Amino acid sequence: MTNPAPPTVESLRIMLRALRLSGFAAHFDEVAEQATREGWTFLEFVHELASHELEARRRRRIERSLKASQLPTTKTLATLNHKRLPAPVRTQMSALCAGDFLRGGTNVLAFGLPGRGKTHTLAAIGHELIQRGHRVLFTPTFQLVQRLLVAKRDLTLEVELKRLDRFDAVILDDIGYVQQDRAEMEVLFTFLAERYERRSVMISSNLVFSQWGRIFKDAMTTAAAIDRVVHHSVILEMTGPSFRAEEAEKSLTRLETGATP
């Protein structure tokens, strides 16, 4: 019987990868050197490696969540012009980014005319929620409605709603642009009712509540939808001048003067 080969750093690294401990494997050398240099105990050495492993898994989880979220990559908190936000909205951003509203399925509703930063604000919050370990889905409302209509046609609506239930928050962008067909209204209402008091929705809308009859067609359904959305909610009133109009004006001025951006 042959004696087993003596352990080596490389053989240990292979075993760590086989065990899917990539964080251990990636940082083993540097942590081992630091442990030797500073005279760490075995417990301290393993604890440091475990910390690297947990951090590596956290980063991978965030990467997967970001990919699944379909969030606009450029609409983050870093690129949001906070000075342009209305003062009441600015004061609420920190608490919203912390994600406490997700407990109990509280909704976030951003209202305002086009170009006021509704989409960017909600997307930025979504990015921050993912960094804190929550799952978020960003979707134009019309795309979600079409997805639900296909599921209803294929008799898999319940399955599709369960898939969507995996997300702590679903951001419905531009709810006012649904095509206003009765079948579309019905699946949208079903989605909102299914998440009521359990999971959060974050909605941007150019239409104030008094105009939601355009979406849900009849007064009774409209009232029921508004009741479910508003019952536990934070409302962001996006007032002020249009961001897009001002950017377009600046671009035009630069063209006229020959200035570079």
Extract low-pLDDT stretches. none
The CATH superfamily of the largest domain turns out to be: P-loop containing nucleotide triphosphate hydrolases
Any idea what the CATH architecture of the largest domain is?
Answer: 3-Layer(aba) Sandwich
Shape: elongated
CATH topology group of the largest domain:
Rossmann fold
Strands in their spatial order, largest beta sheet = 2-3-4-1-5
Largest sheet: 5 strands, parallel
SSE topology sketch:
Elements (H helix, E strand, L loop, with lengths): L8 H10 L3 H17 L3 H28 L17 H12 L8 E5 L6 H14 L4 E5 H13 L3 H8 L4 E5 L8 H14 L4 E6 L7 H4 L2 H12 L2 E5 L5 H15 L4
Parallel strand pairs: 1-4, 1-5, 2-3, 3-4
Helix pairs in contact: 1-2, 2-3, 4-5, 6-7, 6-8
What does this structure look like?
By secondary structure, the protein is α/β, with parallel strands linked by helices. The chain folds into 2 domains: 57 residues, no CATH class; 176 residues, 3-Layer(aba) Sandwich (Rossmann fold), CATH 3.40.50.300. It contains 11 helices and 5 strands, in the order H-H-H-H-E-H-E-H-H-E-H-E-H-H-E-H. It has a 5-stranded parallel β-sheet. Helix 8 links the parallel strand 3 and strand 4. Helix 4 packs parallel to helix 5, helix 6 packs antiparallel against helix 7 and helix 6 packs across helix 8. It is elongated. The model has no long low-confidence stretch (mean pLDDT 87).
